[in-house]
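EI: anyone free to look at a 246-residue chain?
SC: sure, send it
EI:
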Amino acid sequence: MKKFFAFAGLSLLAVGAFAQTNLQMFYDFGEYRKHVTTTLEMFKSDMWGDTFFFVDYDYTTKDQRDADLFGATGSYFEISRGINFWQDTQLAPLSLHAEFNGGVGFGSRNWLFGLNYFMHSEDFANTLTLEVMYKTFCGGASSDIPVQFTAVWGMNNLFGVEGLNFSGFADLWGENTSYWYGPGQDDPLAEAGKWIFISEPQLWYNVGSLFGCQNLNIGGEIELGYNFAGVKGFACNPCAGLKWNF
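SC: here you go
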């Protein structure tokens, strides 16, 4: 499962350094999931750009627990650096972007290099970052179209409700896919996939603000994927979660 911190790019026009770390815990209700995932995220800006990383841990599924297996079964890591030392110019919204991702139980490790463009409302309540990147493939994966497009958004105080926030990302990239998980894994066209798509819109409410604990949020996400994580075709996996902002 992949997450993306919706404040990415905020440092380009904000005054002073901005940093935040949060821990999320989800239960995935997907048909072939039924497991818990924890995600640790960090974002920090500086005078030269910004740094973002997250670490996912997936824990045993319901079937594995029924077989008396417990604990973490896989991990995914992503770290990216936005380079922008022209923040006082008209090109401030445009940044260079470098990224690495990989993990345990994943078929490839990837370096990505490209550009991102940051847009925002006047009060920064609504933000949108668009990225285009060249994507390399290691660990046996390959691509005839080694490019990735990414959109990251954040909307604070949605519909005028204080503490209700909508955020997420969408990735589309070229990869020669195979299917090993869920329906379609024995399909004779199992090697025919060329594109992968994933989006994870998240909705959070700062429930802790009701009783003096601003750190606590309740909400969840829906993972929408096409040929993602070894599953052929379209898949939708709803998740309920808690988030703690440090």
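EI: Residues 84 and 176 are 33 Å apart (CA to CA).
SC: 👍
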